[in-house]
Amino acid sequence: MVWLNGYQNPFYDTSQVDTGFNQFFAGNYIDFRGNSVSVSKIKNSLSTDKCVINMCDSAGNFLFYSNGSKVFNYEHRLIEGGDSINYYPSRNEYDSGYYACYYNGRLSEHMMAFPNPTKKNQFYLVSTYINIDSPNIDGTIPSSYVHYTLLDMSLNGGKGKVLTKNQVIIRGRFASTVSACKHANGKDWWIFVPYDSSDCMVRLKLDSLGVSVDEARICMGWDRPQVGWRVYSSFSPDGKKFALGTIRGVELYDFDRCSGTFSNRQSAENTLIDTNYNKDDIYSASLCFSPNSKLLYCYMYVITFGFINLKRIQKIY
């Protein structure tokens, strides 16, 4: 298995000489295929920020990666048709430059990649389209629809080609996070996207017919706000648990991989509150289950007066 990751300045051109911050954190190529992990630097790689999608084949060979706005192949070259994913016509200055990573790539968890259940070498990229021109009152930015891009890595001599791009699945006002769990049949996928400022989510299903809406609105019962990009979610490796982090806390559910339904809601709000801070200033920034699915960790931060002044990683259960 191979990963390519590393934070870069969104306006940084990786074809130029590495300097400063980017010299240490940009274009990290991590190879797990040998007896030990090797890390190397890739100079002319796609610039990435918080959104990094990597895809390998069953043998662990690197196929393609995306920063949320472009798709590059294993040669670190743009896949045919792989530009202008989540393109903003009113802000085209944000998508210039061959290696560029612009606004949509700065938000984590807004895109996921899935193999086509019935066609080898084809992959779906499912993502939210972030509506820069229609922010919430507090400045957070919701998404106006969920869409997909389909690519085939067997074309162009294995260098790949986008077959169709930015196809709308459902319109609405969504938070930026996309999460998914494999169906109990071992082939299909359940995909979930929360609505903005709501306790509801849309449930999508990826199967032999493609990506479609399975249930337009599933209301979960939480009573805390979730807005714009300030939502993070994760399924446990065994597919039995689902966690969603919002402002002031974490929601934890049991998940049924056969029906795609949630149950046994648990709230972890009180464990996140530090009495020295206003609870409305505390955000869950990332969630991660342990490999054995028995532990859940949450990375939090506190914003006061526009500055992050507390960071904490806490075990939830």
How is this structure best described in words?
The chain has one helix at residues 20-25; strands at 2-5, 28-31, 38-41, 53-56, 62-66, 71-73, 111-115, 122-130, 143-152, 161-174, 179-182, 189-194, 200-207, 210-219, 232-235, 241-246, 249-256, 261-267, 282-289, 296-304, 307-315. It is mainly beta and 317 residues long. The protein folds into two domains: 51-226, no CATH class; 231-317. The strands form six sheets. A four-stranded antiparallel beta sheet has the order 7-8-9-10, with no helix packed on it. The protein starts with a strand and ends with a strand. Mean pLDDT is 76; it is low at 9-25 and 304-313.
Large-scale geometry = globular
* Cα-based radius of gyration, to the nearest Å: 19 Å
The poorly predicted ranges are 9-25, 304-313
The overall strand count is 21
Strand order of the largest sheet: 7-8-9-10
β-strand percent reads 35-45%
Kindly report the average pLDDT value.
76
What is the element string, with H for helices and E for strands? EHEEEEEEEEEEEEEEEEEEEE
